[in-house]
Amino acid sequence: MLTLLPSPIGNIEDISIRALRVLGEADSLLCEDTRVAKKLLKLLEERYGLSHHIEKIVSFHSHNEKKVLASLKPSFFEKNVVYVSDAGMPCISDPGALLVDYCQKNEIEYTVLPGPTAFATAYAASGFTDGHFIFYGFLPHKTKERAEQLQKLLVEPYPVILYEAPHRMEKLLGELSKMAPERLLFAAKEISKRHEKFFKGCANELKKSITGNVLKGEWVVVLSAGKDRLRNSSITAEDIKELNIPPKQKAKLLSKVTGHSVKRCYEKIVADFE
């Protein structure tokens, strides 16, 4: 049997009693980084008296997961196998989805333990009251793809949650100050860790607060909903048609403004072009 086990995103006290029991019963451990996993086990031994009999610790991360799965046989899961992420919930901006798919295809019993997730914690702390949100995770690294994706997210009718690394946080705030200068943002740094901090305001305001050493650490950014921005602006369908953006993106924007389906808007754009 396989158990997907989330690990604390910062504070070790967030480990659950059930997670400790599962680790104590594990025969093999799959993990993103063997060094991180061994450190976690040692810390749990010292703090909570964890006693385990794990025979094998296998590296399983985004760069080798297909290779590892190809080398495994279904019989490997006849014992208790645990997959643990470096921090947070497996399959949420972390490896694990291919492992679940492997179990489903090979009729291997598996379960997922509930546990810490940065995006849910950040939304709860944001103060946004929409009741719905869209989780996106990390934006693309390449400038063109990143700009295109961010533009799409800015017109979503619900708050959008992004993950950002410290060396790109300043870049994200710069992009948002140009693309959506009035948009309200919530930024959470190092959730559940010693240097946890929350910030709220428009991008230009946050740029003044989040600078220098403050940038260090992992970030979760919540963008407020885009629906009011579109509804209250003077933007028209004709304005959107004149934008120099890909037809599919233009169709989505037109759909928001006109109420027609994206497919219908796209077909109209193509017909007009021809």
Query: How much strand content do the residues show?
Result: 15-25%
Rg over alpha carbons: 22 Å
* Poorly predicted runs of 5 or more residues: 228-233
First CA to last CA: what distance? 57 Å
Count of folded domains:
3
Question: What is the CATH homologous superfamily assignment of the largest domain?
Answer: Tetrapyrrole methylase, C-terminal domain
**Strand order in space, largest sheet:** 3-2-4-1-5
Total beta strands: 10
What is the percent of helical residues?
Answer: 40-55%
Order of helices and strands: EHEHEHEHEHEHEHEEHEHHHH
Note the main sheet. Answer: 5 strands, parallel
Features:
274 residues; Cobalt-precorrin-4 Transmethylase, domain 1; Methyltransferase, Cobalt-precorrin-4 Transmethylase, Domain 2; five-stranded parallel β-sheet; five-stranded mixed β-sheet; 42% helix
Structure description:
It is a single chain. With 274 residues, this protein is an alpha/beta fold. It folds into 3 domains: 2-112, Tetrapyrrole methylase, N-terminal domain (Cobalt-precorrin-4 Transmethylase, domain 1, 3-Layer(aba) Sandwich), CATH 3.40.1010; 118-229, 2-Layer Sandwich (Methyltransferase, Cobalt-precorrin-4 Transmethylase, Domain 2), CATH 3.30.950.10; 234-273, no CATH class. It contains 12 helices and 10 strands. The chain has helices spanning 17-25, 34-48, 65-71, 97-105, 118-126, 143-153, 166-179, 203-209, 227-232, 237-241, 247-258, 262-273; strands at residues 2-5, 28-31, 56-59, 81-84, 110-112, 134-138, 160-164, 185-189, 197-201, 219-223. The strands form 2 sheets. A 5-stranded parallel sheet has the order 3-2-4-1-5, covered by helices on one side. It has a 5-stranded mixed sheet with strand order 6-7-10-8-9, with helices on both faces. Strand 2 (28-31), helix 2 (34-48) and strand 3 form a beta-alpha-beta unit. Helix 11 crosses helix 12 (262-273). The longest helix is centred in the N-terminal third of the chain and has 15 residues, at 34-48. The termini are far apart. Mean pLDDT is 91; it is low at 228-233.
